[in-house]
Amino acid sequence: MTLANHQNSKKTKNAGVSPTAPKAHQKANVEKDLRQDVTNRIIELMEGGVTEWKKSWRTAAESGIPKNAVTGMPYRGINIVLLWMAAFQSGFTSNKWMTFIQAKQLGANVIKGQKGTYGIKYKLVEKKDTKAAEPEFYPMTKPFYVYNLDQIENLPDGFKSDPVLLPNTFVADDVADKFINATGAIVEHRGNAAFYSPVWDKIVLPQREAFESTASYYATAFHELVHWTGQTGRLNRLQSTKFGDDEYIFEELVAEIGSAMVAAQFGFIDATIHEHASYLDGWIKILKEDKTAIFKAAKQASAAYEYLLQISQTPLTF
């Protein structure tokens, strides 16, 4: 599932660091450089072989983009990645989160011993001592802590439901097919490779029956759709189609995160972060060299996800 070719992936076991919030004495260090902390967590996951941030089955109501259980608002950008990582590592079944105060206001409580997962919020701070005619601002990052509904007890009725597992055999999904068609992307089914060709401006996929499940087919299609959004005249993101260079590998990371977001929109929970050794090593290299890389990738993935929803006139499912 690339700009040029498709390779098979292997399953990996859980590994990596705890997704829970740091202790009080660590908080100051985290606030000093949240980007480095997040990057270190993801590098450790990758070096431990964990790149499957989603499950291998399809569920009903409890799957999807992480969102706040009280406001119903979905999280965005890097926070989607952070909360998915936490849910994957801890085995949470819900995509809903809330703060300690929100739980308390509902008459609920965090289960004893449970620790929060931190996300990142941005606050615009006005620059001082500038000679500019208009005020200038810069973004300052601050952590916030949330708890998955699996970590909270005594919730009011209606806040949580048990996930309903659906069959893992290939069955065409009319809603997902309608979405793909509505994007206007040209999709051909032939051969045994999945790729997006910037030269032809078309997506090529194997026949549907060649995929192991419905979810794996749509995850692959969504991955290539994210590449498609990067073409000139759309989001103008594609810089290189040379296999293995940094720009190519970074685009693969954008496509993997973006396809995960689109898959979650339609309730497909599938392992779309693939363990291609060439990509994995490249991702680790890029993240080690640039602590802002994962933030850039998540931002571009979110932009691709939102662009696809917009042009297909697909409403958010939150």
Word description of this protein:
Mean pLDDT is 76; it is low at 4-32, 52-62 and 270-278. The chain has one domain (24-311). The longest helix is centred in the last third of the chain and has 20 residues, at 246-265. By secondary structure, it is an alpha+beta fold. The protein has helices spanning 24-32, 34-47, 78-90, 100-105, 174-183, 214-229, 246-265, 277-289, 293-311; strands at 57-59, 67-68, 96-98, 109-110, 117-126, 137-148, 152-153, 165-166, 187-189, 195-197, 202-205, 268-269. α7 crosses α9. β10 and β11 form a beta hairpin. The strands form four sheets. A four-stranded mixed β-sheet has the order 2-3-6-5. It has a three-stranded antiparallel β-sheet with strand order 8-1-12. Strands 9-11-10 form a three-stranded mixed β-sheet, with helices on one face. The protein is built from nine helices and twelve strands.
Question: What series of H and E elements makes up the topology?
Answer: HHEEHEHEEEEEHEEEHHEHH
How many domain modules? 1
Largest sheet: 4 strands, mixed
Mean pLDDT across residues:
76
Class by alpha and beta content: alpha+beta
**In angstroms, what separates the terminal alpha carbons?**
28 Å
Please work out how many helical segments DSSP would assign. Answer: 9
The total beta strand count reads 12
Numbering strands along the chain, what is their spatial order in the largest sheet?
2-3-6-5
Low-confidence stretches: 4-32, 52-62, 270-278
Overall 3D shape: globular
